[in-house]
Amino acid sequence: MPAGLEEFQKKHDFLICVDSDGCAVDTMDIKHKRCFGPCLVKEWGLEQWEKPILERWNEINLYTRTRGINRFKALALALEEVNQTYTPIEGVEELKTWTEEAKELSNPALEAQIAKTGAPVLKKALSWSLAVNRAITELPWEVKHAFSGVKEAFEGVRDFADLVIVSSANRDAVEEEWDQFGLLPLVDTVLCQDAGSKAHCIAQLKKKGYAEGTILMVGDASGDMAAAEENRVYFYPILVRREEESWKNFPQAAQRLKAGNYGEYSLEVREEFLRNLTEDSA
Predict the structure, then answer these.
(1) Is 177 exposed, middle or buried (0-12, 13-18, 19+ CB in 10 A)?
(2) Cβ(225)–Cβ(254) under 8 Å?
(3) How much is the pTM?
(4) If you compute the radius of gyration of the chain from its CA atoms, what whole number of angstroms results?
């Protein structure tokens, strides 16, 4: 079992951090299309407008620059649009305010806020979130897999880089999926939502003794890039709809990191990443 953050010790001169859902493992699309969106429609009784609402949910969470947004922020965005376009949503402003002001956006944090206010919209948000979690656990294994080239990519860097999962997903789910796909033995530690934000995790890993220019964050969403930039480490994007191409090109990126000439290349891949995720059209 990989070590926790406190026990983790630097073994190589380089560190590669990798996100999970939608980056290394092909589980993000299926979770949103089968779980998050449909549970939203069911919880708020929006079946009459199901098709456009589900399409919009997928735009927000998968194909625009809000890809990878926290589930409750995405919920508030979607319900605001439903309220404006289709039918009134009671308490949507209260939900939006909580997502903007809360220090933590999680089920336990939402439960604490419900205990304070008893707001019906927050109760429905929690009910939706729990339903999503149940639906995710019920997804059959045959619809989930690692992207082609991931295992080979990891094996190719193990001789010069430490490898760490940095994900905002549930730890149990991440470890189960990576173990199922034969990836867990290749990583040195697993840092998920219980370890703090991605930016926090990278900051703590930097303290393990890595020199400037030796850390790479691999991710598929704007939040991954932001966490890298906040910590002044390099970013390598896994492009949505082009994931296998991205992993095919990853060994070249890793060799640039090892050779110490990733800097200029990082600007190129950043621009390509932003072009690939469209501006939100709503």
Answers:
(1) buried
(2) no
(3) 0.86
(4) 19
Q: Treating both helix axes as pointing N-terminal to C-terminal, what angle do 92-101 and 71-85 enclose, rounded to 10 degrees?
A: 150
Per DSSP, the residues of 188-244 read: SEEE-GGG--HHHHHHHHHTTTPPTT-EEEEESSHHHHHHHHHTT-EEEE--TT-HH
| CA end-to-end span of the chain | 44
CB 234 within 8 A of CB 25: no
Burial of 165 (0-12, 13-18, 19+ CB in 10 A): buried
pLDDT digits (tens, 9 = 90+) for 175-209: 999 999 999 999 999 998 778 889 999 999 999 99
State pLDDT tens for residues 9-36: 999 999 999 999 999 999 999 999 999 9
DSSP string, 83-133: HHHTS--TTHHHHHHHHHH-S--SHHHHHHHHHHH--HHHHHHHHHHHHHH
**With 0-12 CB in 10 A as exposed, 13-18 as middle and 19+ as buried, what is 123?**
middle
d(CA 49, CA 174): 33
Q: Which of 241, 208, 257 is nearest to 11 (CA)?
A: 208
